[in-house]
Design brief:
about 400 residues; alpha/beta; 7-stranded mixed β-sheet; 20 strands
Amino acid sequence: MNIIPDIQTNRIAIKLRPTAEKMVKRGHPWVFEDSIIKQNTEAKAGDLVIIYDAKKNNFLACGLYDPYSPIRVKLIHAGKPTQINKEWFSIKINEAYELRKPLLETDTNSYRLLFGENDNLPGFIADVYDTVLVVKLYSHIWFPYLNWIIDYLIEVSGCKTVVLRLSRLLQSKGESYGLYDGKVIYGTLENEVVIFREHGVSFSANVIKGHKTGYFLDHRENRKRVGELAQGKTVLDVFSYAGGFSVHALAGEATEVISLDISKHALEMAKNNALLNTHTGIHTTMAIDAFEGLQSLINQKKRFDIVVIDPPSFAKRESEISKAKNSYARLAKLGAQLVMPGGILVLASCSSRVNAEEFFTISEENILGSGKSFEELSKTYHDIDHPITFPEGAYLKCGYYRIS
């Protein structure tokens, strides 16, 4: 299939500073611009870069050149030399699919088929919603290989439609070969809102205009767990977005669920998602800033059997880490005050810059700081369709605490 005209690529040879070379030998997938000490010729987006050992001139790894990013080379293969061709991509996509097969044996038809660096394809995301495949590109490096990759993704997933989403960077810089964000590049899309299933619960994703690829698939296992805990319970879902936790709780026979989010549009999606499933619980929404909303509920002396707090990433850059930690501390303290004795507080983070150990320490110290004690029930991380192969790839962590 030819989505775009064939783009010719060149092979580039580079050598690295000793510290960067060590990182590559350890399997890290990024080479920063200032790590390159020798390069044999100019390069353009998507050119194949071969990294040689500075002393012995042996092959170390290969990757794709990105002139628009401080991560100048995104590695796709390390170890023994290999041919990067059509067949190489087909093997990588098959390996990724095999890893996700156990998930597809459940009543689930939505999953992440490719997870960037963690599947050896940096900056390339592919999510499946029923029979619609949504590809999100975060780097120009993929344009020369897109025709090959899309072919194999269709073959492996069996999807009937492919939608292309482009990051802001790709929309604003460099050549995009007539492609644009939200373009249907294969098949036809009857409705931009696609209904899909997650462990037997129905949801919708707007694959053209929604955040990322249309929905956040990463919390699937935690949403299922909250659903299983929710029978006969009252639940508060903070930063609810499209109601992932809320809808699972309602499907799990919660008696009352409140979805709290600052976005009225997100809460409309949450209401619509709840209506896709049969439930008898009362579902209400609160359109308010999370910190204000939590304080308001405390002032009203409201208490819930389960409180879920799953904020967006508070630390997108280094300078935001300290503020992020303060926010996690405040949320743990506020949340603990809203849980009935014997109830459960669920605290999550998707900031990779705040690691799991730091996040759990902050959460636990501040539950205690609210005057409550707790029993740790469990800690969870990534589901199988979000594998982790390098430290920065790990971002999701979630703690379950019984408050006494």
